[in-house]
Amino acid sequence: MLLGAEILVKCLEKEGVEVIFGYPGGAVLEIYDALVKSECIKHILVRHEQGAAHEASGYARASGKVGVCLATSGPGATNLVTGIATAYMDSIPLVVITGQVPTSMVGTDAFQEVDITGITDPITKYNYLVKDPRQLPRIVKEAFHIARSGRPGPVVIDIPRDVSASLLEYEACDHIELRGYKPNVNGHAGQIKQVVQLLMDAKRPLICAGGGVISAGAGQELTKLAEILNVPVVSTMMGLGAIPGDHPLALGMLGTYGVARANLAVSRCDLFVALGMRFDDRVTGNTAKFAPGAKIVHIDIDPAEIGKNVRVDIPLVGDLKIVLNQLAGRLVSKENAVWWEEIASFPPIFGEDQGENPEITVPEIMKAINELAPDNIIFTTDVGQHQIWAAQLLKVKKPRTFISSGGLGTMGYGIPAAVGAQVACPGHTVLVITGDGSFQMGMPELGTALEQDLPLKVLILNNQSLGMVKQLQDHYCGGRYAAVHFKKNPDFHYLAKAYGALALKITRREEIGEKVSEFLRHPGLAVLEVIVTAKDNVYPMVLAGCGLAEMIGRE
Amino acid sequence: MRHTLAVLVENHPGVLSRVAGLFARRGYNIESLVVGETEDKTVSRITLVVEGDEKVIEQVSKQLNKQVDVIKVNDITNEETVERQLLLLKVAADPPVRQEIMQIVEIFRCRIVDIGRRSLIIEATGDEEKIQAIIKSLQPFGIQELVRTGKVAMVRGQK
């Protein structure tokens, strides 16, 4: 006989779980008691449950495995919500385990009771409230299957305390029967044929790589296909790294903060092949003006994304790794020379042209990172101007090395995501790019990094303000600033010291090369604060209601 | 345009709230929703009447199909179907008008299921048109209470 909690741990081991990010509490006492006895699973104690969800998400994104996090009932569970929503928007596979009050007390507003399956219904791929401990093996097996297959996403398993504490015989579950859930992975032959025809006939074809390319592990297939056809490739923020950022075919990120040549290519192409993306409004701008002269092919594992936001000429449902191979086998190499001449005539990336600025600007720092970063670098970012500059300017060379909250835009993601990524990839240099605003939302997880001896590199681009909101106020509020300037910030130098980190600071341009280099090479936890100008905005930018071709630049 | 969707779902607790929640948060309008067990006890059938153009209905179907608990979605709007709603209606029926009401009941082939001193409860089944017609005919007598189900529908013949 085993406890429900012990059966849970056994099932997690069977799924190959190596790490759980969690925070204990009354409703998960039995689960923790069983977990400490596990020889296969390492538990990482976080500082706030939101950090646990983000860490599981960073772990999943860096490793390609399912991330697992654990929290107690009530506030423990609700603190996970932002992390679950973040993972849901970016299709990240998570299994989230929460404690619940005993089944007999469910529905009585008991101490630390919250209806977490109800709360997370809109932000999970699926969720379970376990009412019978005999169901645990089946539920855990299904949860991992649902989280990682098809379009990945978070799955919540809510476990009442009496379920964890009940004694029963363990009966393994080796078979899943989900008749309502059978993702299509093979592309439809007729549609494949049409896409091939369009790719061969197009004069100005363009491929757009979304996060789906990365989650399908289809980066190489994409690059190969693009090379056969000599087709330019733009990326969404989630798709950065699908094709190496320094590849001659890579044009960079498209979107309302995309780079100019990517947006111009979208606006002038005659065929837009969307791979594993969902046409978010930050990608399309005004959808009526999106790729106006182009036929649109949309290839995605999730049929519900096709035709949701933009009109699609050829829909193709399938797993990108399989579909891209199906396509590549039927294509003949092309030059697209005239198209490339036209692309070469596009203006350079607006953001790079800083002009004269007496103060340090973020693009200068990004340039230094491109020069000094080791090959095994993994970037995580927070949310704001720094995130856009990073996405526009960093050379992301491999899949799963640019980890950022794309869909939900969650501030406070960068540090915990880096903790998860570093746990997944111990030998890599994990660099967090953050601002002074976002840093203060994710800061508690430096405690986790300290405790776990994780040598994160935390780059704080300090402009003493919430730059992205300020930029929006410049454009939409006539430059009237509200609540965007921090009149007082803590001394990040001492904060870094308090967490046992190497604390570096750059205030003058001459220090950039040397200090960035020292920072990236430091063997342990390091925090580098750079005092940057508060006056700069991120460009190009597409204002609300405008098409991508109508982007505005620095005045 | 109005569409009728026949949705087969797992007969689990929580499925209905998932489906209803999906409609609410995606901004789709449900006109009626009926749910009940089918010939297979592990499967429930939800009959949904939804208002929307082709694009909306396509999204509704896709979003429904995406739900793990949804086994099959059929748009039966353009199929030959048998449709029924159930109506219970309490109408004021003082002795002088009772006879007239009973004649109406006869014409529509509905049934009187309860007789009170001053009112009658009438039970009727039929498609939307018939139900509307009955309500309209009884309106002048004073409808005291009215309750009706949404529509259930079944495709004719073939299978």
From TrEMBL, chain B:
Q: Which GO terms describe its molecular function?
A: acetolactate synthase activity; acetolactate synthase regulator activity
Catalytic activity field: 2 pyruvate + H(+) = (2S)-2-acetolactate + CO2
PROSITE patterns of this UniProt entry?
A: ACT
Gene Ontology cellular component list: cytosol
ACT domain location is: 4-78
Subunit structure of this chain's protein? Dimer of large and small chains.
Q: What does this protein do?
A: Catalyzes the conversion of 2 pyruvate molecules into acetolactate in the first common step of the biosynthetic pathway of the branched-amino acids such as leucine, isoleucine, and valine.
Protein family according to the UniProt entry = Belongs to the acetolactate synthase small subunit family.
Q: What is this protein called?
A: Acetolactate synthase small subunit
Q: Which gene encodes it?
A: ilvN
